Structure formats: C-alpha cells, structure tokens
From TrEMBL:
Membrane topology of this protein: Multi-pass membrane protein
Protein name: Multidrug transporter
Location in or out of the cell: Endomembrane system
Species annotation: Polycladomyces abyssicola
Keyword NADP carried by entry: no
Pfam families: EamA
Organism domain of life: Bacteria
Sequence intervals crossing the membrane: 12-33, 39-60, 74-92, 104-122, 129-149, 155-175, 187-207, 219-240, 247-268, 274-291
Phosphoprotein among keywords: no
Residue ranges occupied by any EamA domain in the UniProt entry: 16-144, 157-290
Keywords: Membrane, Transmembrane, Transmembrane helix
Protein family membership: Belongs to the EamA transporter family.
Any single GO CC term annotated in Swiss-Prot or TrEMBL for this entry: membrane
Main location class: membrane
Length: 313
C-alpha cells in the first residue's frame, strides 16, 4: 500500500471498497485450508514466510523505521506477532476437529473481544449506530455459519481452539492499532509476520512435523494462502489500522462467513440454506450500518479524539 496516503483521511467509499477487498480475500482462507493436508502450524508458517519474501523490496526502503522504536515498543511489537501466530495455530487447528461453520461462529466473537479491550484499555467509546450495526452483523454471521453446526465427540476441542484464535487476533489487532501510530504498515506487517512464523516453526519442531518437505500441491496452497488472504487480507488490514481502527476492521471481517459461503457454493458446490442467505443479508446490512456510525481515525485525530496513549500499556 502507498505509505504516503497515511496522513490523509479515506473517503467513505474508499474505506468500504478496501474493507470489502480485504474481507473477500480472507474468505478464501477456509477454502484453501480445507484443500490442504498440512497441519495448522505448517500452513500458518509457510504462508507468512512466503509473504515476507514478497514484501522484501518494500521493507528495504522502510528499514530505518526499526531504529525509531523504543525497547518498550519492540516488546509490544513482538507480543503482537506472538498473538498473530497463536491466532493462526488455534483457528487453523480447529478445522481438524469441527466444521468450518462451527469454527466460524466462534471466530466471529473476535469483534466482541476487540471492542471490550478497546473500551477497557483505551477507553474507546462507541455510539448507538455503531453498536447496533455490530450486533446486527454478529447475529447475521452466526446465522450464516451456525446453520450447519457440528456436534461430535471432538467438536468441543475445535470450538475451544477457534475461540482461542478469536481472542488472540483481537489482542493482536488492538496492539497493532496503537503501534501503527509509530510504524509504517510495511515494517509492522513484516515484523509481526516474522515473529508469528518463528513461533509456528517452534510448534512444528516440537510436534516433529516437516517444515518444508511438502508436495508441490501443498506449496501451491501455501502460495495461494500468502497471496490472497495474507497480502490482500492481513497486510491490507494492517495498513487500514491507521485509518479505521481495530474494532471497525474486526466488525467488517464478520462478513468473512458470507464470502466463505458464496465461495464454497462456487468452488465446492456446497448449497446455501435459506437461513444462511438471510444471515448474509443481515451481516452485510449490519456492517454497512456500523461503518455509517464510525468516522475514520485520521478524521478523529484531526478533531482531537485520541486514545489515552499511543502505545499499549
């Protein structure tokens, strides 16, 4: 993304367009993960490593950003990467124990964790329009993903893993929102991806699974995960943290099950139920209503509306 735009406010139309691109991109994650036979740690690690290689030319231009960080900010940056790695490990692992639908329901509690953290830690306030939109989108996403909830002997393990993934990504996004006041999105994304990939590598080594000895088909899936949901999803969302905030992004991601349902119908031939179609409409409407009540962060800063601190803690 163009770092020179970071001092300017985004128009409402551009905000919606970029958020939509990101949501569509991350919606491919579940499809690609279902296609793969690799364990969660390998999927997460290799998608991040490939993304880091792709980012190197832009990172080199912004390398001086690292020298501006204090020791405390380095600590928070590493912690953000740790929670991103835990998110990938927990959420991807959940697919081995439960259905995509069950996993998505619990993953979509992330906006609630994010909003609660933003209120408790940063004293961020939300108007009635934003809260009602978030609630409507959450109800819609539960209808979309919950229409095919799986009940089984091991399903509860997947449910816990997905909920853990939701809590982890919420913490990651809240830390990132504050660090993005200091760092470019390029350096922030590259660093947290590096920390997350190292964590996942350690998990893989502890589990005794091969790190790189995988068939060409799996490497094709790793590349797809890197290019689509990571570059056009996570990297884009990290850039948008400068403009719209963590809670807004997590609320927009409630649209991910909608995209996943449509992609599953298109790519996997899985039909959508009437409840899921209604849920899609509620989710899209709720996200649109939420965004209507939330100005971008650049506009808030211009009006003197800031969190109590520019770095967590």
């Amino acid at each position: 993304m163009d770092e020179s735009m970071e001092s300017k406010a985004l128009s409402p139309l551009l905000r919606v367009l970029l958020l939509t691109v990101g949501v569509v991109a991350v919606s491919f994650s579940a499809i690609f993960i279902k296609w793969s036979d690799a364990p969660a740690g390998v999927l997460g690690m290799n998608r991040l490593l490939i993304t880091m290689v792709l980012m190197l030319p832009w990172v080199w231009k912004r390398r001086s950003d690292w020298t501006t960080l204090s020791r405390k900010e380095w600590g928070w940056l590493i912690l953000s990467g740790v929670f991103l790695g835990l998110h990938f490990w927990g959420w991807i692992s959940s697919f081995r124990y439960t259905s995509v639908a069950s996993s998505m329901v619990l993953l979509n509690t992330a906006p609630l964790f994010t909003a609660l953290g933003a209120f408790l830690v940063f004293r961020q306030r939300f108007g009635h329009v934003a809260l009602s939109g978030m609630g409507l989108a959450l109800v819609g996403s539960v209808m979309v993903a919950g229409a095919d909830l799986q009940v089984g002997k091991t399903a509860w393990i997947g449910d816990l893993l997905s909920a853990f993934g939701a809590l982890s990504v919420a913490i990651h996004m809240l830390i990132g929102e504050q660090l993005r006041n200091k760092l470019s999105s390029t350096i922030y994304s590259f660093t947290v991806f590096g920390v997350a990939s190292l964590l996942l590598m350690a998990i893989n080594l502890a589990d005794g699974v091969p790190l790189f000895d995988w068939p060409y088909r799996e490497w094709g899936i790793f590349l797809l995960l890197s290019l689509v949901p990571t570059v056009f999803g996570h990297v884009l969302f990290n850039w948008l943290l400068k403009f719209v905030g963590a809670v807004t992004i997590e609320t927009a991601i409630l649209g991910e099950p909608v995209g996943a349902i449509l992609l599953a119908f298109w790519l996997l031939g899985e039909p959508a139920t009437t409840v899921q179609i209604l849920g899609c409409a509620l989710t899209i409407g709720g996200i649109a209503w939420y965004l209507r009540g939330q100005p971008d962060r650049v506009s808030q800063d211009a009006q003197g509306v800031r969190f109590r601190s520019t770095t967590p803690g």
